[in-house]
Structures are given as C-alpha cells and as structure tokens.
Amino acid sequence: DAKTTQPPSMDCAEGRAANLPCNHSTISGNEYVYWYRQIHSQGPQYIIHGLKNNETNEMASLIITEDRKSSTLILPHATLRDTAVYYCIVRVVNTGNQFYFGTGTSLTVIP
Amino acid sequence: GEEVAQTPKHLVRGEGQKAKLYCAPIKGHSYVFWYQQVLKNEFKFLISFQNENVFDETGMPKERFSAKCLPNSPCSLEIQATKLEDSAVYFCASSQLGQGNQPQHFGDGTRLSIL
C-alpha cells in the first residue's frame, strides 16, 4: 500500500527543468507529501516537503494541486548529478510517522 | 554527529547465522526508523523508536528480527537465524521530532548478503 503512483522513468535534457509528477489520490488532510531521491545505492536524500501550499528551497520546487490529490517536483535546471530515483512519499501522521515509499521515478539527465 | 552513521557498510553471513547492524542517529534526534530495501526500488518500514522506546513495530517480522535503542549506544537491528530472503540493504533514519512535518535523515545503509 504505497499510497503514491509515479511514472517508472523519465528523461530530461541537461539545463532544462525536470518536472516529476506524483499521484496521491487517497491522501488525508493531515498527511504531508515528501520528496526524496536515491543516487546509486546511497541512502535516500531529502529534497522537499509540503502539506497544502507550494514550497521552494535551494534544491527544488513542490507544486501541490488544490485538491491535494497530486503534486509535481520541479528541478529548475537539471544537471547530470540529478540523475537518480526520485520518491514521492506520503507521511502517515497517526501511526508512527513512517514513510510509505512508492517505486519511484528513475530520472536520467541527458547531456 | 551531523549524519546518520550506519555500520558496517557490508555484512556477509551464511544462512542460519546471526546478523547485527548498527545505527548512530544524528545528535539531538529523538526518533529512529529502520527500513529494508530488498529490490532496487522497494522500501519496507520495519520499526521506529522514540528515544529508547519502541514507537511503532508494525513492520517488524514476528520472528527472528529484533531491535533496540539504548541510551548512550548506537541503535541496533538484529536478525537471528538469517535466511536468504533477508538479503537486502537496511537503512536507518532519524528525525528530531515525530511530527509529520519533520524530515527523516537517512544513513547510507548496510548491505546484508546471506549466502
């Protein structure tokens, strides 16, 4: 029960914006959307998270639809080092706060 | 420390042997989480701790798996009588608090290979 669906893979040209979609149609009102990425076999790296409003930090922007059923992670200027598996995660608030990982999107940035 | 430290990086055990993995959370973080990544992209939650107390163990296999977080010691995940299917990368994560708006910070994992 991953709670999120993502496309299995995407390509993006270097220097262009990478837009990674995520569906979380069963999200509850108090559940946060998190994005992490995993490069090779390293540990998942935190990118950004949000509840309702759009968020931006030095790594990325997170756009959450008004009904909260989907979101998009935007990497504004993709570099080769952004090649990784990106996970959209819904954080369950009321049961120990563990993450439910989906299967992620494998993003390949092409020179 | 500033990072979650997991040891060892790699662990090889024969089937039936015991395996013990360690995790030092970020200093000041009260919550520790263990996840298992079996196939390349699939994570499974195992257990979480609030300080030394089990917070949620709904993902822990009923047999053979145990975990502890004792004061002034790294947390540990122990697997008794290992099976081939236990081969996976085990990740530990910590967060400052347990609320939904607190990111979890992950270590680089321990790759367990059961032969």
Structural write-up:
Chain A has 111 residues and is mainly beta. Chain A has no helices and ten strands. In chain A, the strands form two sheets. In chain A, strands 1, 3, 4, 8, 9 and 10 form a six-stranded mixed β-sheet that branches. A four-stranded antiparallel β-sheet of chain A has the order 2-7-6-5, with no helix packed on it. In chain A, a hairpin with a 7-residue loop joins strand 8 and strand 9. With 115 residues, chain B is mostly beta strands. Chain B is built from no helices and eleven strands. In chain B, strands 2, 4, 5, 6, 9, 10 and 11 form a seven-stranded mixed β-sheet that branches. In chain B, a hairpin with a 2-residue loop joins strand 5 and strand 6. Chains A and B meet through strand 3, strand 4, strand 8 and strand 9 of A and strand 4, strand 5, strand 9 and strand 10 of B.
Number of strands of chain A: 10
Please tell me how large the radius of gyration of chain B is: 13 Å
Radius of gyration of chain A: 13 Å
Task: Say how many strands of chain B there are.
Answer: 11
User: What would the principal axes of the Cα set say about the shape of chain B?
Assistant: globular
Count of helical segments of chain B? 0
Oligomer: heterodimer
Major sheet summary line of chain A:
6 strands, mixed
DSSP strand (E) fraction of chain B?
A: over 45%
The residue-averaged pLDDT of chain B reads: 93
List low-confidence stretches of chain B. Answer: none
Order of helices and strands of chain B: EEEEEEEEEEE
Q: Which helices and strands, and how do they pair?
A:
The complex is a heterodimer of chains A (111) and B (115).
Chain A: E1 9-13, E2 18-23, E3 32-38, E4 45-50, E5 55-56, E6 61-64, E7 70-75, E8 84-91, E9 99-101, E10 105-110
Chain B: E1 5-7, E2 10-13, E3 19-24, E4 31-37, E5 43-50, E6 53-56, E7 65-68, E8 75-79, E9 88-95, E10 105-106, E11 110-114
Parallel strand pairs in B: 2-11
Antiparallel strand pairs in B: 1-3, 3-8, 4-5, 4-9, 5-6, 7-8, 9-10, 9-11
